[in-house]
Design brief:
This protein is α/β, with parallel strands linked by helices and 540 residues long. The chain has helices spanning 2-14, 20-26, 46-49, 53-63, 85-96, 130-145, 161-173, 176-181, 183-198, 203-216, 220-244, 261-270, 304-319, 333-345, 379-389, 394-406, 418-421, 429-444, 460-479, 483-502, 511-531; strands spanning 38-41, 69-75, 78-83, 111-116, 149-156, 250-253, 274-277, 280-283, 293-296, 323-327, 354-357, 362-364, 367-368, 414-415. The strands form four sheets. Strands 6-5-4-10-11 form a five-stranded parallel beta sheet. Strands 1-3-2 form a three-stranded antiparallel beta sheet. Strands 7-8-9 form a three-stranded antiparallel beta sheet. β12 and β13 form a beta hairpin. α19 packs antiparallel against α20 (483-502). The longest helix is centred in the middle third of the chain and has 25 residues, at 220-244. The two termini are 37 Å apart.
């Protein structure tokens, strides 16, 4: 509200060359409260008006006038605006205590498809897969909160050359009884062994290629083994998803498209895009300074790219999405750029709506986790230990693991540390859970009437933090980065705990108003935790 009012007044003062929408984007929140609540920098206006920014700020400050402004000042080229605290506090508390506070409708019910999690069958669900799973889940929750209809797809890795390697490994070292008792451990062990021995014995790699070719051709033995590996893997994955409280609208593997890629190849051929290259079929992308996209290998087998192209076409036919988000690590940037450009060349206008939501790696001692190299930490083990360290409370333990990941900016790498996750001090999930429980306990100690006429200057910084929540949910969605919400919740919790430590809340003439403020904090914390995929805890 106040930013719109300021932007409209600025547009009137500065002239028709400047639109309210553009001016609103220029408004800033001062780092220091002594510089006001909202600041407008005038430096970009110096060339236009041929005046010193400070002189421009003085002219603008003198003309700004509205009942919600307590004062304005020109300082160092900025117009600093001080809001009427009583009016704004009343306005903010009325909104912030509403269950839908921070919700937007700009999505207009359009669909956003999210490709997330996507573990490979026959491999344990490691910490390395956590990032895609919880970043994608949070983005789905943010999309829904912004008025979209999210469609979460778990695109299981159940096809490709690596499964030929696995089948070759099982032929040599597999055991039916061990497979039934502990499927993912056994399959992971023989997969690691395969790649270790293949370094000295190249014939193993060739045997793996042969097994994958047999699988693609539908050979009975290969298909039966692959199907068993897939079934056992999905059962194990579901246990993890239940602990994380994550569900999907569709679980579909790459293999689903094994008999549908012919149409995609035919489309590319019809468009004249396929070219021979050393016996393989590729789509050249020279005009984009990208390497060719491999569609069919020289031995006649298809590729990951062929399946992703087919899946993209299938998803648009099914959902007519406004956006299609691929929540996949940074190492796949080139792959998704190739996919998008191939689809654009093939004449699919919706290809521009496909976005690779890349993210950094989960590191262990500074190194990437790798199943192939036998260097991995199982998520199941981490969740169990986190629960035990949290005194048996699964919500606190799981929330700690989720928040430790999501508090990092999406593109950054994350160093795994269970000790850092579970401390109750600092920037952690347990700190947020403790703050929420503390706020709830206050409202349980006394009955109170809903009163928004709070006269308490010490509450102003906390009130302003509450006011930021709608902007932060919108920004987090547009930037596709849940860490914006995570960092916001930490700031809100810090301001609340400072207020709690320095203010008598109960048994005063402002108790109703202060508990109404506390209730607003509870509402926003609960919604923010939900958007991260965490459950609030009312007692700790």
């Amino acid at each position: 509200m106040e930013k719109e009012i300021i932007a409209l007044q600025l547009a009137h003062i500065l002239g028709e060359e400047f639109t309210p929408e553009d001016l609103k984007q220029k408004l800033e929140q001062p780092k220091h409260s002594s510089h006001g609540d909202i600041a407008f920098p005038c430096f970009f206006l110096a060339r236009h008006f041929r005046k010193n920014p400070q002189n421009i700020a003085e002219d603008v400050s003198a003309q700004l006038n509205h009942p919600i402004f307590a004062d304005t000042e020109a300082l160092h080229g900025y117009v600093n605006i001080f809001l009427d605290q009583s009016f704004m506090t009343d306005h903010i508390l009325r909104r912030a205590t509403h269950i839908d506070y921070g919700r937007h409708r700009f999505g207009n019910g359009e669909r956003v498809v999210l490709d997330l999690s996507a573990p490979n069958i026959a491999k344990p669900f490691s910490m390395g897969h956590l990032r895609s799973t919880i970043i994608g889940n949070s983005l789905g929750l943010l999309a829904e909160y912004c008025g979209y209809k999210p469609v979460k797809i778990n695109y299981i890795g159940d096809y490709g050359t690596q499964f030929g390697h696995l089948l070759a490994a099982y032929e040599r070292w597999g055991d039916k009884d061990t497979l039934q008792e502990n499927p993912l451990k056994m399959l992971s062990d023989i997969y690691v062994r395969f790649h270790e021995e293949a370094k000295q014995n190249p014939s193993l790699t060739e045997a793996g290629r042969d097994w994958f070719k047999r699988l693609e051709e539908g050979e009975e033995e290969a298909a039966a083994l692959w199907s068993r590996f897939r079934e056992l893997s999905l059962e194990e994955f579901d246990k993890i998803y239940k602990q994380l409280d994550i569900t999907f609208d569709l679980t579909r593997g790459e293999a689903y498209y094994s008999d549908k890629m012919g149409e995609t190849i035919a489309i590319l051929e019809e468009k004249g895009l396929l070219e021979q290259s050393e016996g393989a079929l590729v789509v050249r992308l020279d005009e984009y300074d990208l390497p060719p996209c491999l569609i069919v290998k020289s031995n006649g087998t298809t590729t990951y790219a062929t399946r992703d192209l087919t899946a993209a076409i299938d998803r648009y036919r099914a959902y007519h999405f406004a956006e299609s988000l691929y929540v996949v690590g940074n190492e796949q940037i080139l792959h998704f750029e190739q996919i998008r450009k191939v689809l654009e060349k093939a004449g699919f206008p919706w290809a521009s709506s496909m976005k690779h939501i890349s993210f950094g790696m989960m590191l262990q001692d500074g190194k990437k986790m790798s199943t192939r190299k036998g260097r991995t930490i199982l998520l199941e083990d981490v969740l169990e230990e986190a629960r035990e360290r949290a005194g048996g409370n699964a919500d606190i333990g799981t929330g700690a693991v989720i928040f430790h990941d999501l508090k990092h900016q999406r593109q950054n790498d994350v160093e795994f540390s269970l000790d850092d996750m579970l401390t109750f001090e600092g920037n952690t999930g347990p700190y947020l859970q403790y703050t929420y429980a503390r706020a709830v306990s206050l409202t349980e100690k006394a009955d109170f009437d809903f009163r928004t006429d709070l006269k308490d200057g010490s509450a102003w910084e906390l009130v302003k933090q509450l006011h930021l929540f709608p902007d932060e949910t919108e920004r987090a969605f547009y930037q596709k980065d849940p860490s914006i919400i995570a960092r916001y919740l930490l700031k809100l919790s810090k301001h609340f705990n400072q207020y709690y430590a320095n203010t008598k809340i109960l048994q005063t003439d402002q108790t109703d108003q202060r508990l109404t403020l506390v209730q607003a904090v509870i509402t926003v914390l609960k919604k923010g935790l939900h958007l991260l995929g965490m459950k609030p805890v009312e007692k700790m």
